[in-house]
Amino acid sequence: MGELPAKLGNKWNDNVNALLEALGWEHIGDKDMDLPGTDDKDHGIDALLIYENPGKTVCQTVLVESKHYAKGSLSPSKLKEWIELLRKKQNQLRASSDLQKEFPVLAECSETNLGVIMCWVHDADEEYLSETFQNYLENAIIPSAPRTGLYSRIMVLDNRRIVRLVSMLQVLVKAKSFCFVYPAGINDNVQTERSKVLTVEYMMSNIIIAECQGTKEKNTTVFYFGEMEIPAVETLLSFLSKYQRLDKDRSVKIYHYENDEDTDNVTKHFKGKDYTNIKFVRMQQLSLNSEPSLNLEEDE
Amino acid sequence: MSKEEQYPYSSEIRDIIIDCIKNSDLLDFLRSKGIYYFNASQEDAAELTSRLLLDGQDLDVLRGYAYKSTQKSILTGFTLVSESFFDLSSLYNTIRTKETLVKDGYTLKSLTKKGDNEFSGEIVYHKRRPSRTAFLKYDKRDISFAIKSLSKKEWQVEVDGEKSSDGKVVQQLFEKAAEGKSISRDELLLDNLTTENTITFFDELRTGGLDKQWQVNDILRITLRKPVLTEKEEEDDGVEVADEAKKTEEVTIGDEHLSGIRQAILEGKNLRDNSFVHSAQKSGYIFTSMTYLFQHKKNGTFMQLRAEFKGNPKIFEVCLEDYGRNAEKESEKDKESLTKLSETENMKYRSLFWNAAKDIYNKLRSKAK
């Protein structure tokens, strides 16, 4: 594993695409391009990506906007404006024949019903994100147009979620190979599936299940971004048991992002007992105000 | 999460969202995660949400929303009367530590003194819901109560719970405590009032439910019931149908008649003089509930109180549905206004109202005798 190079400057859009590609999403066309809509107008979009959706027969199309902002330039109305604008683009690009002509692969993908806003607030700290920005997120109420039967989704990821994903990738790239696990019963799948792709649902979750090929054996690897309190960890273990991720003959590594002085007491609580094969591992907490490096290639 | 309370399957989460969680609460939850749905039906939103891998905190939030949608504070009460002297507070203290109660999941907290022969206490229990998924199998109920000695042989119990059935739980516990003491129970029962008296009852609550600083500005809802004969009942003449709901027809008064009643009230007229009320009474309808909008004469604070005879038999209960400053009534924050009222104050107003109702009820009954 090589040194992770220094910041990639303010090429935030490149950075975002590198992250999403590392998570198994496929970039289509250029970055920052104009896409033809059904209204005969062009709609600028930072990136167009698709990914294979476990349990689904068609790939998911994603419109991605990358935002690199300072705290001072952000406001509740700014966030609302981004969401509303992206939603308009989703609607105008939905079923656009010109868009499909330009990218024939989209004919075999979902409609443009998913948008992702990757927002990096470069001077933010934990307090700003968990209070001010969190408040913006919670109050971004966008009036909904009359129901058409076609729903769409927009996800906003800020520094907090972005650094967690990067920290997770830093663990995964150390393995010989890895995949994400979609147990039967989650999504629409009737059987457990494994995929290189991290779906948007996983991306927005505090629990992510993966499998890593070590030098000798395969490990179940769980990334956990939730609270490290005994009841919360009990819930996590109950989840893993329910979805049959706990196995007497296979080790389970639980990588947890939250770690402070009390974390050891919590992990000690679960040592031995019914969970002989579980190992808790601390994840590296990344700085919230320096852009995480996304060059994750191994150079061994 | 105890072993019995296992992690729910995503299909269970979806069903709970559809059945028990308000759409606006679900959207609040999703927004807090940076997730925005557009044009999604409740089913779509539930389906999409159930695909997230929710952690313990998320489940707690959703569980809270699921309970919230059915949670209201309801005040009801009863009086226990004996031929001889009895002390309800010491009877309560003797059953507090009974093993059978603890085994059944009841926690009876200690009494605190509020005044001379006046105490308050709390009972916590887990109500098992057999038809629910494991996620919502145990509904934790906190019931507050206040007991007051009216005389050496008479104690009044006020119960503040989330559901009408909570009153019954406390009632059964106290009766168990007083077993063998030949104690009888007195309640505010709809069956004990004549049709005409129910109208007078609700009418007098309008003017005498709270102190003179409060006046009724509006009547928001009126429910009437009419006993009807079901086909089955007609066939098996003389056989009583156990289910009360089968025997009655419940009607909420429509806007047209309600506005007539409102107008009459604002003009200071009596309810029973209203022509609609008059004809409803003639057709055999009985008033079972009324929701009043009270306003404080000086500071403009409003309070929305629902007075209702509920359950089988129909027992009187009071629910404070909304409270706030007048200006806030119109604002988006309206839904939060109830939270500004402390629990003690909330109970205080409902208790005042319930006690006024009790006086009116007793007066009407003694007149009827």
Architecture overview:
The complex is a heterodimer of chains A (300) and B (369). Chain A has helices spanning 12-22, 76-93, 97-102, 126-139, 159-172, 200-203, 230-242, 263-269, and strands spanning 26-28, 33-36, 42-45, 47-51, 60-69, 114-121, 152-157, 177-182, 193-195, 207-213, 218-224, 252-256, 278-282. Chain A has 300 residues and is an alpha/beta fold. Chain A has a six-stranded mixed beta sheet with strand order 9-8-10-11-12-13, with no helix packed on it. In chain A, strands 1-4-5-6-7 form a five-stranded mixed beta sheet, with helices on both faces. In chain A, strands 2-3 form a two-stranded antiparallel ribbon. In chain A, helix 2 (76-93) packs across helix 4 (126-139). Chain B is α+β, with helices and mostly antiparallel strands and 369 residues long. Chain B has helices at residues 10-20, 23-32, 42-50, 56-68, 88-96, 99-103, 164-177, 195-208, 231-235, 244-247, 255-266, 275-282, 343-368, and strands spanning 35-38, 74-82, 106-108, 112-115, 118-128, 138-151, 154-161, 183-187, 214-227, 248-252, 286-296, 302-310, 315-324. In chain B, strands 2, 3, 4, 5, 6, 7, 8, 9, 10, 11, 12 and 13 form a twelve-stranded antiparallel beta sheet that branches. In chain B, helix 1 (10-20) packs antiparallel against helix 3 and helix 2 (23-32) packs parallel to helix 3 (42-50). Chain B starts with 9 loop residues before the first helix and ends with a helix. Classes of the chains: A alpha/beta (300), B alpha+beta (369). Chains A and B meet through helix 4, strand 7, strand 10 and helix 7 of A and helix 2, strand 1, helix 3 and helix 4 of B. Strand 7 of chain A pairs antiparallel with strand 1 of chain B.
